[in-house]
Amino acid sequence: MHTNGKAHGIPEFPPGVQRLPATAPPEYFIALLKRDGGVIAENFAPVEVMDKCNAEIKPKLDAEQRWNGSFFPKETRKCTSLIANSPTYTRELLMNPLYQTICDHFLTTRNSFWWGDTWKESVSKPQAHTGAAMYIGPGAKAQPLHRDDYLHHNVHTEVPAPWNDERDMNRESAVGLFVAGTKTTKANGATRFIPGSHLWGNYERKNPPPENQTVYAELEKGDAFFMFASCFHGGSQNITTDEHRLVYSTFVTRGWLRQEDNMYLAIPRDILMQYDRKVQQFIGYSCSDPGCGLVDDLDPIYKLYPEELKTAVPVDY
Ligand SMILES: O=C(O)CCC(=O)C(=O)O
Ligand SMILES: [Fe+2]
Q1: Which DSSP letter does residue 315 get?
Q2: Residue 5 in this model has a pLDDT that exceeds 80
Q3: Which carries the bigger pLDDT value, residue 294 or residue 8?
Q4: What's the DSSP call for residue 260?
Q5: What is the DSSP string of 71-104?
Q6: Among 72, 143, 197, which residue has the most ligand 1 atoms within 8 Å of its CB, making it the best to mutate?
Q7: Is the distance from the beta carbon of residue 191 to the nearest atom of ligand 1 less than 6 Å?
Q8: What is the pLDDT of residue 41?
Q9: CA-CA distances (angstroms) from residue 19 to 16, 41, 217?
């Protein structure tokens, strides 16, 4: 379905970032994402589901290594690889039907090509991109405002509002979902973002993203915030002395953002280990700068040389 927010059956929402019950029609969320780049879904997941997720990730969160850089302050802990660590997260949050519908809408790529004398349509469906829980402890500094689709080198041209379905159909490379595992507030580090920044250009804007245009996605436990990866956003400072903030962050991306051959599954480990590092890195056991291809926030080559893991620390990308 393609709408510009004024299509039949979609209300004229007041200005400002909207909070809708998660049971509202998906078209409303889609229209508000096009308008603002972000929208809140209240009661997205039951509190009991969040309690289960929180219990499943606790061992990993407790064992987590501190980040060595400014992208994540030392008071922040992460549970990376959520799909490996929390089946409840995977089944209930990642696979949530509303999120799936939104991702299908914005991230399905449909094109037609000549294939001999056949005009052949190809439809590439979205895929999971990342899933990590972010725990922000008392005293943590704010994360710099950034666009998560810089990972894909998604260089945007500045376009005037409103969103235009034809013009902007391929604009987004990822759609984010942030679900609150605890209540999130401006004081304890709620995600802040700049509404409308999904339409901003990359090279056209000469100044850093303005903090005074940010809006805080304050959530009750189980609420969700949907956001385009193209929006400027970041985890915020935690000025409390005794509250932590836990958010389950997910991004889904376009299905074609990968290699043609699935080298990780196609190449057996014993054959892989017969090649030197240069080959291993070239076929995918390396990172694309910035930050694509990581395993638990580390270079994937460590998966092949686990003895080197002892000295490895995550660094800014
Ligand atoms: O923790 C948050 O609220 C956002 C984290 C984030 O934007 C990131 O790690 O890229
Ligand atoms: Fe981010």
Answers
A1: B
A2: no
A3: 294
A4: S
A5: SS-TTEEEE--HHHH-HHIIIIIIT-HHHHHHHH
A6: 143
A7: yes
A8: 99
A9: 10, 6, 10
Residue 106 tokens, joined:
């914005």
Q: Indicate which ligand has the atom closest to the C-alpha of 218.
A: 1
Specify the CATH number for 19-109+125-257; select among 1.50.10.10, 2.60.120.620, 3.30.450.40, 2.40.110.10: 2.60.120.620
Q: What is the pLDDT of residue 68?
A: 64
Task: Report whether residue 57 contacts ligand 1, using a CB cutoff of 6 Å.
Answer: no
Ligand 2 centre distance from Cα of residue 26 (Å): 24
Residue 148 Cβ contacting ligand 1 at under 6 Å: yes
Per-residue pLDDT reduced to its tens digit, 235-259: 999 999 999 999 999 999 999 999 9
Find out whether the beta carbon of 192 lies less than 6 Å from any atom of ligand 1: no
- Give the number of the atom of ligand 1 that is nearest the alpha carbon of residue 234: 7
CA dist list (Å): 285 to 9, 263, 279, 304:
48, 9, 9, 8
- Sign of torsion, CA 199 294 75 184? positive
> Percent of the chain at pLDDT above 90?
89
- For the chain, the domains span 19-109+125-257, 259-317
The two tokens of residue 121 are 């349509």
Q: Which residue has the higher pLDDT, 213 or 312?
A: 213
Best residue among 130, 249, 251, 292 to mutate for probing ligand 1, ranked by most atoms within 8 Å of CB: 249
Measured at the CA of 124, the angle between CA 120 and CA 126, to 5 degrees, comes to 170
- Looking at residue 64, its pLDDT comes to 77
Kindly give the number of the ligand 1 atom that is closest to the alpha carbon of 236.
3
Q: Is 314 in the pocket of ligand 1 (CB under 6 A)?
A: no
2 pLDDT tier (thresholds 50, 70, 90): very low
Residue 67 has pLDDT above 70, yes or no: no
**Nearest CA, atom 2, ligand 1:** 235
3-state SS, residue 14: coil
Q: What's the gap in Å between 308 CA and the centre of ligand 1?
A: 28
